[in-house]
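User: Quick sanity check before I run a bigger batch. Here is a single chain. Can you write out its predicted 3D structure?
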Amino acid sequence: MNALRAPVVRYRRETVTVGARYGTIAPADFTPAWWLPGPHLQTVWPALIRRTRPVSLVRERLELPDGDFVDIDWAGDSGPIAVILHGLQGSSRSPHVQGLLRALGRYGWRSAVLHFRGCSGEPNRLSRTYHSGETGDIGYVVRRLCERHPSTPVAAVGYSLGGNVLLKWLAERGTGTDLAAAVAVSVPFRLARAAERLECGLSRIYKRHFIVDLRRTILEKFRHRPGPLDLDAVRRVWTFRGFDNLVTAPLHGFRDAEHYYETASCRRYLVGIACPTLIVHALDDPFMTRDVVPRREELSSSIRLELSATGGHVGFVEGNAPWSARCWLEDRIPQFLAGRLESTGRKPPDRQSPSSVCEPLCGTTGN
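Assistant: Done. Predicted structure follows.
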């Protein structure tokens, strides 16, 4: 990858061929909206200002082998299945998830938003929660889906933390994955660097928002039950590293935050991915530094990494004016998934209006 020369990123295009050793690094075909200059406006506008009609969802509760549960929100009633993994403290209500649900519906896909433990609006049963490297739940859900729908293509899309989880799981599975394709967006490839970046400049605003929400969730979870945590220390924590030392590490078997960051960061695993995978990343992402982006030799030949000079964190807003804004990801992600069905000889579904319900994996438990 050549150096960035603002305002255009210049790369040497790489083409994946049969027997290729490495993957592809290419510029994303994204033109940022002129009225959203800089990474922070690109990040904040689609998350806080954009207005969309809520997608009608059907909730399913899936019991896990360890006695806990995850909630899955479904949209659509037929077609290939896209499992969607939200970001830190996200849910099916996250604006970028809602936008993708609507976009996939237009392409004839049904979607299953997998909530990480404790993120669906109800605390999970066990003391443990979720983290950036926890891949057991997605593995269990995908396996159940494929057993239920053996002739239906299944893909997965992960945002931010969910993208890290997805990429790590794909590498762990290697050639054993049942997915037809995968997409990961704005991935914190090196968690330690992301934790450091969020302590700098305006990015501290995002850190404060997340830490306040994470503390609230943990304090509520252990308000009426015994737990292994020092809740007074949790109330005082103000950094990701501090939170991960106090909460993430002890709840999930890591020695400390550094051990967690080293073990859970997906960058070291990317070379093991066999599933056709698109990764989209903006070099101005305010959640991380540019040096987190993997080099070409760290990518397996199944990965296409599309980089943009701008776009922020899960932003990528195009358009000449606010009333004609477009979220580029909502075109690029369905396009890539449909293209993978074509390349495998399956006919992609016709584009159509979004559906509101789908056949659940098992029983539903409300909306």
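Residues 1-19, 353-367 have pLDDT under 50 and may be disordered.

User: Great, the batch can go ahead then.
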